[in-house]
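Chapter review: from sequence to fold.
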Amino acid sequence: MFVSNLSIENWVSNRDEGEFLENPTWNQIESAIRDLNGKSKTLVTLGNDDESYMAIGSGESGKYIVNVTFDNISFTNLVDLSKPDEIEKLVVGGQEGNYQAKMCVDLQKVLLAAKTFAELGQLESSLSWEEDKSLVVL
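The token string follows.
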């Protein structure tokens, strides 16, 4: 497996009391993603090293944000190109932000993207990805 660690945020009041797992199984990763609720659990990070990771956020109303970096400089976002050009509010990493609607994807796309990244360290080619310098729209 490409992924060597899993970080799971769990916000209690204003403190993150999450956990960090080394050498996670796919079942642990999938469970952490499914537990995202956009309230207390708002971010899961699948890491390989300090520069390669996939961040999956929110989960509120079945909407998720996924971004990946292999160098911690350029970032690629999972997108749904059928979505309108609108802005959605989601809580990611314990903070509310404004995101382009096309960046708010469903759970099935997230799980497919996460499984491919976790096992192979690649972007799932059957999904749509866009390189982006700024994750949050100001």
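Two observations follow directly from the output. The chain has one domain: 5-132. The chain has a mean pLDDT of 92.
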